[in-house]
Amino acid sequence: MSLPDPPIVVSALVADGLVGSFGVGVAAEVFGYDRRQLGLPRFDFALVSEQPGLLRTDTGIAIAVEHGLDRLDRSDIVLITAWELYEEDPSAALLDALRAAAARGAVLVSHCTGAFVLAAAGLLDGMRVTTHWKYAGELAARFPRLDVDPSVLYVDNGSIITGAGTAAGVDTLLHLLRREWGAAAANALAREMVVPPHRDGGQAQFVDAPVPACQDDLLGVVLEWAGRNLAEDISVDVLARRALMSPRSFARRFRATTGTTPHAWLLGQRLAAAEELLENSDASVEEVARLVGFGTAAGLREQFTRRRGVSPRAYRRTFRAGRPASGARAAAVQLDGHRPGARGMGGDQTLVEAEFGQPA
């Protein structure tokens, strides 16, 4: 009689005092049930903390953690959930335990700010990694040896996988299952969880980019006009004429005031207006392209996919509002006011100049 295969030991490391509820829930949903009927192995799942006992989540719910760091010595997969205390250095004991697990060959997976813990252990040096887009700048500043990519949902470096924030934890763990036990098993679990087995695009499609109001009265008037007339053929010459300036003087004043170029600002406004129409109107992609000034559907698709990481149609499927559309023409009237600061400066600057969301 053959003995059953030993279970895959999975440990979710949680921070003492402030546990991220969502990350723990995702980890438990994926690894906490017997899903062998789906083609997955048997998992031995448990929470681990430096000081086992009764801990409270970030939403105030009490959870019991039975295992200390010694469980990491026999773990095949170590999950580092969102680390709410990411501004503080983890303890030497915790970092040593993670280094030992990595050296032993365990797979380490971080979710959201859990990447800060792996970075503090020196396990991410020289790697391309990700975290929640809100904390990507902080991660890159504190750990300059990392190549931080805020545009993706996860980055697979073999024995170390870093995931973005919140719902990207689902994407990250489904990717791990797909890699280790095949697409069929991962897809079957995704169906049970009622989530897509793979999401198109990256974090860029979820980033809102409000900008400060323009402090230059003259430029403000001109750009307010541009925001209301995105369908027009707007060039630096056109804007300069409205500002009663030469194109060269206008471009210099624009950059001095805003820190960006007229082209980058206009592209950002057009992309933001396209998002608004895709979310809240029944206008076709061709009509959206015309209304916001891209001219053709191909032009809109090229810029939208490059800057947001998904096609216009995929974006609409994800973010389509549930209310009835008010009509493309009516929506177009509101193009310059869809988000706070939409008439201001900077627009899509970060996305434009940093190639944020460019597909891999």
Helices and strands, with pairings:
Layout: E1 8-13, H1 21-31, E2 43-48, E3 53-56, E4 62-65, E5 77-80, H2 92-104, E6 107-111, H3 115-120, E7 128-129, H4 136-142, E8 147-148, E9 154-156, E10 160-163, H5 168-181, H6 183-193, H7 217-228, H8 236-242, H9 247-258, H10 262-280, H11 285-292, H12 297-308, H13 312-319, H14 328-333, H15 349-354
Parallel strand pairs: 1-2, 1-5, 5-6, 6-10, 7-8
Antiparallel strand pairs: 3-4, 9-10
Helix pairs in contact: 1-5, 5-6, 8-9, 10-11, 10-13, 11-12
For the structure shown, list the relevant keywords.
single chain, 360 residues, alpha/beta, Rossmann fold, Arc Repressor Mutant, subunit A, 2 domains, six-stranded mixed beta sheet, two-stranded antiparallel sheet, 42% helix, 11% strand, elongated, disordered C terminus, DNA-binding, DNA-binding transcription factor activity
Textual characterization of the structure:
GO terms for molecular function: DNA-binding transcription factor activity; sequence-specific DNA binding. Keywords: DNA-binding, Transcription, Transcription regulation. With 360 residues, the chain is α/β, with parallel strands linked by helices. The protein folds into two domains: 8-199, 3-Layer(aba) Sandwich (Rossmann fold), CATH 3.40.50; 217-354, Orthogonal Bundle (Arc Repressor Mutant, subunit A). The chain is 42% helix and 11% strand. It is built from 15 helices and ten strands. It has helices at residues 21-31, 92-104, 115-120, 136-142, 168-181, 183-193, 217-228, 236-242, 247-258, 262-280, 285-292, 297-308, 312-319, 328-333, 349-354; strands at residues 8-13, 43-48, 53-56, 62-65, 77-80, 107-111, 128-129, 147-148, 154-156, 160-163. The strands form three sheets. A six-stranded mixed sheet has the order 2-1-5-6-10-9, sandwiched between helices. A two-stranded antiparallel sheet has the order 3-4. Helix 4 (136-142) links the parallel strand 7 (128-129) and strand 8. The longest helix is centred in the C-terminal third of the chain and has 19 residues, at 262-280. The radius of gyration is 24 Å and the shape is elongated. The termini are far apart. Residues 209-213 and 321-360 have low confidence and may be disordered.
